[in-house]
From TrEMBL:
<keyword id="KW-0732">Signal</keyword>
<dbReference type="Pfam" id="PF13505">
    <property type="entry name" value="OMP_b-brl"/>
</dbReference>
<protein>
    <submittedName>
        <fullName>Porin family protein</fullName>
    </submittedName>
</protein>
<dbReference type="InterPro" id="IPR027385">
    <property type="entry name" value="Beta-barrel_OMP"/>
</dbReference>
<feature type="domain" description="Outer membrane protein beta-barrel">
    <location>
        <begin position="7"/>
        <end position="177"/>
    </location>
</feature>
<feature type="signal peptide">
    <location>
        <begin position="1"/>
        <end position="20"/>
    </location>
</feature>
<dbReference type="InterPro" id="IPR011250">
    <property type="entry name" value="OMP/PagP_B-barrel"/>
</dbReference>
Length: 177
């Protein structure tokens, strides 16, 4: 019993500076996005593009985020080109670690996404899909409120014929208000 109380006291003492840090903060960022696709155990680069994100830290541990990613590219050595866009809304849950120069927060994320795509395949095709996504990431916020965020998200997209896994790796730079 005494060990549990001591452990709880240590955790509380270590966590107190993090809880006391600024929360309830908005953040806005832009960055680079790369999408990969896996169909029938074959993985392929599915384009690069940009990402725009808006976030709100409910408290130091939980954040809400909304993002838009647009990627375009060609499929392998074919003449098939496409443009895909993803809208995501979700939560991140992590444990912030403070230092004299800022806060580092590794996190897991879960949310809902909508993906749409247009391609020149067969004279032009379109489809869209809605699904849950999950991922991991890490965000560093400097003492001057500039942040760097690296995230990796995974979701499964289904069209009329196939179901396939998509992953998105993004690096975002932004400002926390």
């Amino acid at each position: 019993m005494r060990r549990n109380i001591l452990l709880l006291a240590i955790i509380t003492a270590v966590s107190a500076p993090v809880v006391a840090s600024e929360s309830n903060a908005f953040r806005l960022g832009v960055g680079y996005s790369e999408t990969d696709i896996e169909v029938l155990s074959n993985s392929d680069d599915y384009g690069t593009g940009f990402k725009v994100e808006l976030g709100y830290d409910v408290n130091p541990y939980v954040g809400i985020k909304l993002s838009y990613e647009q990627n375009e590219g060609d499929i392998g050595s074919t003449n098939v080109s496409y443009e895909g866009s993803t809208v995501k809304g979700g939560f991140d849950l992590g444990y912030p670690v403070e230092s004299p120069i800022g806060v580092f927060k590794p996190y897991v994320t879960l949310g809902f996404s909508g993906y749409s795509e247009e391609s020149n395949l067969l004279g032009g095709s379109r489809f869209s899909s809605s699904q849950f996504y999950y991922g991991i990431g890490a965000r560093y916020t400097s003492s001057v409120n500039v942040y760097l965020d690296l995230s990796y998200d995974l979701f499964e997209v289904e069209d009329a014929v196939l179901s396939y896994d998509m992953t998105q790796l993004a690096f975002t730079v932004g400002y926390q208000f």
